[in-house]
Amino acid sequence: MEIEIATIGGYEEVGRQMTAVRAGDDVVVFDMGLNLSKVLIHDNVETERMHSLDLIDMGAIPDDRVMSELEGDVKAIVPTHGHLDHIGAISKLAHRYDAPIVATPFTIELVKQQIKGEEKFGVQNDLVKMEAGGRMAIGDENELEFVNVTHSIIDAINPVLHTPEGAIVYGLDKRMDHDPVLGDPIDMERFREIGREGVLCYIEDCTNAGKKGRTPSESVARRHLKDVMYSLEDYDGGIVATTFSSHIARVKSLVEFADDIGRQPVLLGRSMEKYSGTAERLDFVDFPDDLGMYGHRKSVDRTFKRIMNEGKENFLPIVTGHQGEPRAMLTRMGRGETPYDIEDGDKVIFSARVIPEPTNEGQRYQSEKLLRMQGARIYDEIHVSGHLREEGHYEMLDALQPENVIPAHQDMQGFAPYVDLAEQFGLEVGETLHVTRNGNMIQLVE
Ligand SMILES: [Zn+2]
């Protein structure tokens, strides 16, 4: 059977992930993501109203025109998890393919919400839920399987396309967590089994490949957060926390520790309400019944007023804005645009790390400066990454023993440390180790 892989997006950047695999007459598309930094750099861009081609020209969504070179029919569009760099272009591109979108329940719900917000295209693709561990026939000869992985968002999987020529494992994004705060540990046993059955190709996210050692478990970030928050138990002023709103496990820890130190947690900001509300509705997390979640400007301001009236020392606002996004809640608080007064000595907890990218770094610098000018004390980097480091990558390559490897989710510089590692497994650049760019075709079996 002919096997061909189109590396459509995310092979020159972190963002706008999209890869298509053709096995005989069947094509499966993995991820359709957005490169948010290409959107944020322009003022007042409303992607909801923009045409696909304009977004392609901006470098914001994958240039899927290369799909016309791929023979066969698209049988499924498979986003791996709910981060925007993996699902953010579905509302702009999926309608061009007559295929269902297949994903885990939490991811499907986020895709559904994204499609609803789209104003230019009506995406009518069927939405099919499949749990981790599930399998689905793709045409007569291929089968799709979801293997449970751990990442900085719940319900993440690595899809595997089983073909007569061997398995194709799409390995974006994960860390190896054996003690996650929410959900099941990574299913390494299944990966080792798939490795024994034979892996034709492994496509892997190289984000932290240049970092030594292993990525700590989410339970380590939880302990770090506990240490910081318990140390503030006697502080009788304002404490504000921020984290990735899609990071439900972290939000859960913040909510629990707020309660432990005698503060009422409250989630503020549109995306806080969106992700935590969705996770709670789908029973992925059990929040206290009285946990307030407010997204709309008016209800947020009303809550801030209530906090100021009843005493800041009784609350822990958990807000958006960990990257200093100009319109997010924490940045607005820093600019004094909300009824919440930050006073000398008040604490701001960043349960996040700045995404190392100039736009983020600049915005975060500004936001932090504004907070410090009001006297805020900053607790930074209470966080663990969602991506594998060097030893995690080693373990994956050791488990899968792939015949071919395609490094992804980085630029050329980011690929380099992964290439060095993969060479230790006998893979050869230009032969079985395919260092590539956006818009290329790799023929694995002719
Ligand atoms: Zn991700």
TrEMBL record:
It comes from the Archaea. GO terms for molecular function: 5'-3' RNA exonuclease activity; RNA binding; zinc ion binding. One of its GO terms (cellular component) is cytoplasm. CDD domains: RNaseJ_MBL-fold. Zn(2+) 2 binds at residues 85-86, 173, 409. Its cofactor is Zn(2+). Keywords: Cytoplasm, Exonuclease, Hydrolase, Metal-binding, Nuclease, RNA-binding, Zinc. Substrate binds at residues 383-387. It holds the Pfam family Lactamase_B. Its EC number is 3.1.-.-. Its main location: cytoplasm. Binds 2 Zn(2+) ions per subunit. It is not clear if Zn(2+) or Mg(2+) is physiologically important. GO terms for biological process: RNA catabolic process. The keyword Nuclease applies. It is found in: Cytoplasm. Zn(2+) 1 binds at residues 81, 83, 151, 173. Residues 15-224 form the Metallo-beta-lactamase domain. Belongs to the metallo-beta-lactamase superfamily. RNA-metabolizing metallo-beta-lactamase-like family. Archaeal RNase J subfamily. Homodimer. An RNase that has 5'-3' exonuclease activity. May be involved in RNA degradation. This is Ribonuclease J. It comes from Halapricum desulfuricans. The gene is rnjA.
